[in-house]
Amino acid sequence: MATPLTAEQLLAAIKSAGARVVEHDGWRTRNRNHKGPWGPTHGVMIHHTVSTGTDASVRLCRDGHASLPGPLCHGVIDKAGTVHLIANGRANHAGLGDDDVLRAVIAEKPLPPDNEANTDGNRHFYGFECVNLGNGKDPWPAAQVEAIARAAAGICRAHGWGAASVIGHSEWQPGKIDPYGPIGAPDGPALTMARIRARVEQLLDDDKPTAPSTPSKPTPKPTVPKPPAPAKPKPYAPPAFPKGLAPGRKAPSARTLQRALKAAGLMSKGIPEADTYGPATQAAVARFHQAHPAYRAVGKHYDPAIGPRGWAALHTIAYGKKK
Questions:
Q1: pTM of the entire predicted model
Q2: Is-contact 318 260, C-beta < 8 A?
């Protein structure tokens, strides 16, 4: 259970992650707390505004509209990568979502399909609305994607959460698609929550404190032998790439691939495992390649076939950091 950050703590958390911040008048006390509880907080949710222009989008998210009063989020992230803080407390952004998803976020486990709307998300999630039309054609600039990851990482670090505590609106509420669209250009790779979470995880790993290399005071010579230091765990070694694994073929190794895709959050856990490398598996592999384009075939934006390098990277992402 996490107590919500105060306004000053929220500001400091986002700034500490290296994000540019603009504070808008009244943001520290603007909220919907009179309509329901705020907290305990469990995660960060990412949305798109379905609007254009920074000023217009900030006004929309601050004031809301006839059918949905503002504030509609805690911060608006513009295309230049600036975080505009407009609220602190309960905000109208998440709506009702899936209780199974909330439990998975709290446990930091792969998300199940969001097939119910029975739980108040406005109470439990910080929300960031990101300026984008959400039509699948409006590109997400790299600076904006980086700001999303940095704002989320700052809040996660302040609460002691991992990257699995960052989710998209589409993963919470049935029927939602945000965030959605290509990165960088209309024909660029798709923005996915797997990509955002991977960057959040990098930022959290990069900022882990390190122990001092020398003690501040001389250590007295021990009178008894010290026990040996525990052996360092061996680095994760992914399984060998299986021969004959290819789209449309049948092989037991297809099940191994499906389990790794599910563990990495790229394939719904509700899809049954099978020996067939079928359309659902191909689509999940394509999502992996969209999030990690270094492993896809050159010139392909939609690559459903995983190769040895991608196989090793996928298994490392899925299992390499689990204890």
A1: 0.66
A2: yes
* Distance in Å from the first CA to the final CA of the chain: 22
| Strand, coil or helix: 140 | strand
HSE toward the beta carbon, residue 217, CA cutoff 13 A: 2
Strand blocks (E) in the chain: 20-23, 43-48, 64-65, 68-69, 75-77, 82-85, 96-97, 119-120, 125-130, 166-168
Which residue(s) pair with 20 in the sheet? 82
Q: Tell me what the pLDDT averaged over the chain comes to.
A: 90
Judge whether 91 and 10 are in contact, CB under 8 Å: no
Q: Which residues share a beta bridge with 130?
A: 48, 77
Query: Taking CA 186 as the corner, what is the angle to CA 136 and CA 151, rounded to the nearest 5 degrees?
Result: 70
Could you tell me which residues are beta bridge partners of residue 125? 43
DSSP string, 86-116: ---S--TTS-EE-HHHHHHHHHT-PPPP---
CA distance 261 to 255: 10
Q: Before 40, cis peptide (omega within 30)?
A: yes
Angle between helices 142-159 and 193-206 (to 10 degrees): 60
Q: What is the pLDDT of residues 44-92, one digit of tens each?
A: 999 999 999 999 999 999 999 999 999 999 999 999 999 999 999 999 9
Per-residue pLDDT, averaged over 289-299, amounts to: 86
Q: How far apart are CA 154 and CA 2, in angstroms?
A: 15
The answer to whether the CB of 42 falls within 8 A of the CB of 164 is no
Distances (CA, A) of 21 to 52, 106, 192, 201: 19, 28, 24, 21
What does the alpha-carbon distance between residue 23 and residue 81 come to, in Å, rounded to a whole number? 14
58 DSSP assignment: H
Q: Are strands 43-48 and 75-77 parallel, antiparallel or unpaired?
A: unpaired
**Which residues make beta-bridge pairs with 84?**
22, 76
The tokens describing 295, both together, are 């492993």
Q: Are strands 43-48 and 166-168 parallel, antiparallel or unpaired?
A: parallel
